[in-house]
Amino acid sequence: MGNEKRFVKVYGKGAMEGNEIWVDTETGVNYLFHFAGSSGGLTPLLDRDGKPIVTSPSELEDLK
Questions:
Q1: CA nearest 21: which of 40, 5, 38, 34?
Q2: pTM
Q3: Rg (the chain; Cα; Å)
Q4: What CA–CA distances, in Å, run from 56 to 22, 23, 24, 34, 40?
Q5: Would you say 46 and 52 are in contact if contact means Cβ atoms under 8 Å apart?
Q6: How do the pLDDT tens digits run along the chain, 64 residues long?
Q7: What is the rounded distance in angstroms from the CA atom of residue 12 to the CA atom of residue 54?
């Protein structure tokens, strides 16, 4: 496994309340994390057909 991270944050905005997008480097699935104060929630990002948004393998290499 080494030093590779399973999840990588690719977007973030906000301090006490905001949104982040995280990518699973093994599957490429993108997740939205919304937080407000000490609470938050995580959900996969979906396209208009309801399928998860997946980062391509070539883009994943750039994230690792």
A1: 34
A2: 0.86
A3: 13
A4: 14, 11, 11, 24, 27
A5: yes
A6: 567 789 999 999 999 999 999 999 999 999 999 999 999 999 999 999 999 999 998 888 887 6
A7: 18
